[in-house]
Amino acid sequence: MQYLFLLFSLLSFAETTSTDEKVVGVFYMKPLFGHVHQTSVGTSPSLTTIQCAHPVKVLESSKVSVSAEWAYVQVADYRGFILKDYLSERKPDCFQGKYPKFFDTLNLDLQELYYWGRLYDQYIQGESRVQ
Amino acid sequence: MINTFRVNLAFSSFLLLLSFGAYAQAQKLQEEKELEVVNFKSIKKVLEKDGLSQAAEQKKVQVAVMKKEQVNLDQGRYNYPSEDELWGFMSEYWLVKNAQILGWDFEKPDYGLESSFRSTLQTLGFVQKKFKILLVNTPTLVRASLPGNDGEMILLLSVPFIRSLDLSKLEISLMFLEDYFRLEAGYFKNQVASEKMKKLAGTSFYGQKPDLTMVEELMKNYHKQIYEKGFTFQQQFEVTKKMDSFLKSNPELWNVYFRLLGKLQSFLKVNVQYKDYLKLFPSPEMQLKWISPEDKVL
Predict the structure, then answer these.
(1) Rg over CA atoms, chain B
(2) Closest among A115, A96, A93, A112 to A104, alpha carbons compared
(3) Per-residue pLDDT tens over the stretch A9-35
(4) CB contact under 8 A, A116 and B135
(5) Interface contact A131-B122, CB threshold 8 A
(6) Which residues pair with A70 in a beta bridge?
(7) pTM (global) more than 0.90
(8) Which ipTM did the prediction report?
(9) What digits encode the pLDDT tens for the residues B253-283?
(10) String of DSSP letters for B206-231
């Protein structure tokens, strides 16, 4: 009887920990293209490539710890990581949104979309400020 | 009998006349009613009083404006990007197209270049300057600066070159500063822009096919400028003099720059792998002469 009770409590614990994930909010991708990363490292493999203004669900979970620079996100069925600097609360004014017909005629292939996303992973970005 | 008949006839005639009269009266009233309904004049005062006619007019104007906006919006989808937006987009497009040749998609150590270049800019009073640094893993492209979005600069530098010269982050920052001055002077844009680009940027191709030869032309010009044309002696002189005047206020930085030019001169003289550098950025030897303090004759 005691074993049964222990098993039951373990099962219920497992259930609560798997559902503690909550949606912080919906944000939008800022760069032209970007990757949802497998881990919170810029060089980690890409789960999927998304384009500017794509909605991204930012999640919070006790099971996933992320540094201050990264956000734990869900895009379609993928759960991964995106740099917080690349997310915006408001829908951004994207190049492909402003000039859709011009952009479409360039016919970017999958490899180019992938590299465009990687470009934003590889950039070292900064801005000088008033001291 | 005859009298009775006359009375009846008179009575029935009277009834007939009465019924015709009543019929005519009813017909007229109906027309009048209809007239009242369609006659705008009769209700104009009421409409004016309620402000309905004004509202109807406003609605007409609104619909016309909305229709015009919709047409503009539809046509706007067929616009070429403005010149400013085109530069940032084209620079990244060129980087994407040449990703494998440049080899920028690789793991590299953190050289601390962001903080170093940011602090160099701030020390010299250049604020609100946005930059993107992209390290490339090839000796064929040593350095370049490309125009980015909204006045941003994209700075490229070769990691094999950094290693060969054992450049410090301060020396790299001063190379970036030179590149920033070149970009700011507009040398790149002036040499790469085509007539077609200037003509088409910001215009609409609504109802026709977009002219993609503009993009092809720009890609070729980017390649030519970065790998073949480079900068003239005059441009190099202007940039070096600008570096000299800005760094003079900070002797420590000036000395680092002076030593960097010496380092470049001696390295490039003997290293054939980077022989093209002297063609593209003439020449560290001359740069040294331009900023060397004149010998005083006592």
Answers:
(1) 41
(2) A96
(3) 544 444 344 468 899 999 999 999 999
(4) no
(5) yes
(6) A83
(7) no
(8) 0.84
(9) 999 999 999 999 999 999 988 989 999 999 9
(10) TTS---THHHHHHHHHHHIIIIII--
